[in-house]
Automatic annotation (TrEMBL):
GO terms for molecular function: oxidoreductase activity. PANTHER family: 5-KETO-D-GLUCONATE 5-REDUCTASE (PTHR43669), ALCOHOL DEHYDROGENASE, PUTATIVE (AFU_ORTHOLOGUE AFUA_3G03445)-RELATED (PTHR43669:SF3). Belongs to the short-chain dehydrogenases/reductases (SDR) family. Coiled coil: none annotated. InterPro entries: NAD(P)-bd_dom_sf, SDR_fam. Pfam families: adh_short. This is SDR family oxidoreductase. It comes from Nocardioides euryhalodurans. Keywords: Oxidoreductase.
Length: 218
């Protein structure tokens, strides 16, 4: 039986890299999709050092065709997708009086719309027992007005994950967003590694009591 596979969308340093390494330590092979070639190459090496097979692709996640093609290639190369993790968001320091509609929609395309693209492309490679996870944020409930689009992205992503979970449940696939209620830091309860541990635990929660949103309070 082949090893399980996690596909990390929006891969790079920070939480996404910690998620890739955490699942690699749990016996998963790892697919990486992101925009930074050097970051992906470095992360792939770290994952391989943990004994995982890895494959990576560079793609602009706001480009539906490029993202779809990359996900298909990664799923084909690794053979399956058991966990699809979605991490990207756009940080734009503009308040509601500065933020334009085109810029808001562009940010939503990355922070929410790309989830649809990745999911729809990965779905043929997912079977019963597969999981969809997402990095959420307290910005969904407590937005900072100086980064107005981020709160909208995170609220939209959480809402979308609830719908994904309901849509996939009949097929035995579940989805969960982990709402990080704190600021990422190099030390303490909100390091990327600690958040990744919470995401890993959320993906492994018992299906009988499944929750499609889990807060991480640190």
């Amino acid at each position: 039986m082949s090893r399980p596979v996690i596909l990390v969308v929006g891969a790079g340093p920070g939480v996404s890299g910690s998620v890739a390494r955490r699942f690699a330590r749990d016996g998963h092979d790892v697919g990486l999709l992101g925009i930074g070639e050097e970051q992906l190459r470095t992360l792939a090496g770290e994952v391989e050092d943990l004994g995982a097979t890895t494959a990576w692709r560079v793609a602009d996640l706001t480009d539906e065709a490029a993202t779809t093609r990359a996900v298909h290639e990664l799923a084909g190369e690794l053979g399956r997708v058991d966990v699809l993790h979605f991490n990207p968001s756009a940080f734009r320091e503009q308040d509601p009086l500065e933020l334009s509609v085109p810029d808001l929609l562009a940010d939503l395309t990355l922070g929410v719309g790309a989830m649809l693209t990745a999911l729809q492309a990965a779905r043929p490679s997912m079977s019963a027992g597969a999981r969809v996870t997402a990095t959420g944020s307290m910005a969904a409930d407590q937005p900072w007005h100086r980064a107005a689009s981020l709160g909208v992205q995170k609220a939209g992503l959480r809402n979308l994950v609830h719908s994904i979970d309901a849509a996939l449940e009949p097929d035995g696939i579940r989805a969960v967003s982990v709402t990080v209620r704190g600021t990422l830091s190099d030390e303490g309860a909100f390091t990327p590694d600690r958040v990744a541990e919470a995401i890993h635990a959320a993906a492994r929660q018992p299906e009988s009591g499944w929750r499609s949103e889990i807060p991480y309070e640190g």
